[in-house]
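Hi R.,

Here's the chain you asked about this morning:
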Amino acid sequence: MGNRPSYLSIKHLETVPSIMRYPFLLFDADHTLFDFDQAQDRALKSTIVELHGHFDADYFEVYNEVNRRLWLAFERGEIIQQDIKVSRFEHFLERTGLPLDPFEANATYLNHLSEATFLLDDALEVVQELAVDRKLLIVTNGLREVQRPRFTTSAIAPFITGIVVSDEIGVAKPNPGIFDAAFEALKQPAKSEVLMIGDSLTSDMRGGIDYGIDTCWFNPTGNQNVLELPVTYEIRDLWALFYLLDKNPP
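And here is the predicted structure, written out as tokens:
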């Protein structure tokens, strides 16, 4: 396999059998395969322009801060997922002073977001090649009315076995219940055969570690592991998956 790429950090590679390493791959959706930043920005701008007519670039920062704070509260179990929908627009509209109805703004935003299927660079090519000899499943902390349409109409859909959406089963990463649902969808493979791949330390990595499966932190910007979680692998580039899976890239 040659020298290890500089963008790949491996702790336990030598302990994993080289024959069909991880035949089952759990992928996070947003910021791992899907370009959620681009999708969110377009959906927000389209919503405000449609309902108000004028969009200020400062709105991006305000909305992102409000939305992130609520999603983290949801991951900690402090609020339920449905609370996020309207609450984020109530806070956003209060801070920006926009004279809009938060319920209408939320409905319009979700409609635009559900149509945004932008993928990260190389995601399609990587998924397409990995699906040749592995089963890929998306596990996402998302809303069903957004994630289902985005996945179904995306270019990667033909190569993914299925999708587990937190909104549909009532629990979200890092809760072990969502991993139970994922393993059920995959017909109960051995935990040693499964790898969780995602960008979030608090949901993807913590959830996988607590569930007892190996984890791969997708960290393209080189952030510090501030939680000091014992992730199994860390990669900067999706192509690095081929190295740790002992698979030749196309």
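One quick note: The two ends are 14 Å apart (CA to CA).

Cheers,
M.
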